[in-house]
Design a protein that fits this description.
By secondary structure, the chain is of the alpha/beta class. The protein is built from 12 helices and 10 strands. Helices cover 44% and strands 19% of the residues. Bound molecules: 5'-O-[(R)-(carboxyoxy)(hydroxy)phosphoryl]adenosine and zinc ion (ZN).
C-alpha cells in the first residue's frame, strides 16, 4: 500500500444485505463482503424490517472484519469510513450508521455518510475505469426508479422518476401474483427465458405532464386483471408468458425514456444501476439501443448492481475528495432524496 493511497472502509445496511467493503482510490475493490438475508425473509414473501435490523446487528461486526481481512488491511490503513445513511429502512440503516460512528469514534478515522442511490450510480466506476461524468444514468432498484444526468461526481439533475411503484417493486409484486414468490426480480428474469414476451400485450404507461417520469402501478393492475379474467374464464395461465410479457413492458418503457433523454441532452454516454439493472433482458435491450445510436453503454456486473458496500466505498471516495466529513450527529434518514445531503 502506498502512503498516498486513499482506502475507504464502506458499510451498507439499508435493506436486507449486511455488507462491507474496502475500496482503494475510488475504483479498486479490495474486498466486497455481502451477507444476504434473502432466505430469512422468503417465508414472509418480503423484507420484514424488524427481522432485518436484528440480523444486521448479529452480522455487522463479522462482515466488517471479513472485509478488512480479505483486503489484507487493518483499521490503521483506512483513510475514511463511508456508511449508507439513507434512504432505506430506518432500523436497518441505524445499525450501519451506529457501527460506523462507533468505529470512527474509537479509531479517530473520519466518517462520511453516503446516499444509497448515489452508491448505486457510482458502482459503474468500479469496472469502467474510463467512465467520467457527465453522462445519463437510469437507476432502477426495489425502492427507486430515477433517470438522472450525472453532471459531476456527486452532482445530479433528476430528469424523471416514478410516480408510484418503483421498477423493482413492480417485479416483486407481479412475481407474487403469478406465484413465483420473493425475491421477484431474479425469478421473473429466469422464468421469462422460457416465455413468449409477445404473448400478452400489457400497457406501456405514459405520464402526461412529464415525459421522463415513470408509472408502473397501472401495469401491475393490468397483470392482476389479466390473471383474474383468466381465472373467471377458466383459461390456464402460462406463468412464463405472463412474466416475459410483463418484463418486456417494463423494459420497453425504461429503454424508451432513457434513449429519449440521451438524444435530447446530447450526451453520448449512458449507464444503468440498481438491482433491476442486473436483469438480463434489460441489459440486452440497452446494449442494442445504445449500439444502434453509437452511445457508450455502461453497466456494473450483477453483483455490483444489487446492494453491496463496494459502491458505497466508491461514492464515499468522491465525497472524501470534496472534503465531506460527518460528525457523530449523523443520523439515518429513511426518505433521503437524491441531491439532498446532510451537512
Ligand atoms: O438495488 P437493490 O438490491 O435494493 C434496493 O436498493 O432496493 O434492488 C432490489 C430490487 C428488488 O426489487 C429485486 O426484485 C430487483 O431489484 N432485482 C431484479 C433482478 N435482480 C434484482 N429485478 C429484475 N431482474 C433481476 N434480475
Ligand atoms: Zn439498493
Amino acid at each position: 500500500m502506498e502512503k498516498e493511497d486513499v482506502l475507504i472502509l464502506a458499510i451498507e445496511s439499508s435493506c436486507d444485505e449486511t455488507a462491507s467493503a474496502v475500496v482503494k482510490n475510488g475504483r479498486e475493490v479490495l474486498s466486497n463482503i455481502i451477507s444476504s438475508q434473502i432466505a430469512l425473509h422468503t417465508v414472509y414473501g418480503g423484507v420484514v424490517p424488524e427481522i432485518a435490523s436484528r440480523k444486521h446487528i448479529e452480522k455487522i461486526n463479522q462482515v466488517i472484519e471479513a472485509a478488512l481481512n480479505e483486503a489484507n488491511v487493518t483499521l490503521k490503513d483506512i483513510t475514511a469510513i463511508a456508511v449508507t445513511y439513507g434512504p432505506g429502512l430506518v432500523g436497518a440503516l441505524l445499525v450501519g450508521v451506529s457501527t460506523a460512528k462507533a468505529i470512527s469514534l474509537a479509531s479517530g478515522i473520519p466518517l462520511i455518510g453516503v446516499h444509497h442511490i448515489e452508491g448505486h450510480i457510482n458502482a459503474n466506476y468500479i469496472e469502467n475505469k474510463e467512465l467520467e461524468p457527465p453522462y445519463i444514468c437510469l437507476v432502477v432498484s426495489g425502492g427507486h426508479s430515477h433517470l438522472v444526468i450525472v453532471k459531476d461526481y456527486g452532482e445530479y439533475e433528476i430528469l424523471g422518476k416514478t410516480r408510484d411503484d418503483a421498477a423493482g417493486e413492480a417485479f416483486d409484486k407481479v412475481a407474487r401474483a403469478i406465484g413465483l414468490g420473493y425475491p421477484g426480480g431474479p425469478k421473473i428474469d429466469k422464468v421469462s427465458k422460457e416465455g413468449n414476451a409477445d404473448a400478452i400485450h400489457f400497457p406501456r404507461a405514459k405520464v402526461v405532464d412529464s415525459v421522463y417520469d415513470f408509472s408502473f402501478s397501472g401495469l401491475k393492475s393490468a397483470v392482476l386483471n389479466y390473471l383474474n379474467s383468466c381465472e373467471m374464464k377458466g383459461i390456464p395461465v402460462c406463468q412464463a408468458d405472463v412474466a416475459a410479457s410483463f418484463q418486456k413492458a417494463v423494459v420497453d418503457v425504461l429503454a424508451e425514456h432513457s434513449m429519449n433523454a440521451v438524444e435530447e441532452h446530447g450526451l453520448r454516454k449512458f449507464a444503468i444501476a440498481g438491482g433491476v439493472a442486473s436483469n438480463t433482458s434489460l441489459r440486452e435491450a440497452f446494449i442494442k439501443e445504445c449500439s444502434a445510436r453509437k452511445i457508450e453503454f455502461y453497466c456494473p456486473s450483477p453483483i455490483f448492481c444489487t446492494d453491496n458496500a463496494a459502491m458505497i466505498g466508491v461514492a464515499g471516495y468522491y465525497e472524501y475528495l470534496k472534503g465531506v466529513r460527518h460528525g457523530y450527529d449523523l443520523n439515518a434518514v429513511p426518505n433521503l432524496r437524491l441531491g439532498e445531503k446532510c451537512e
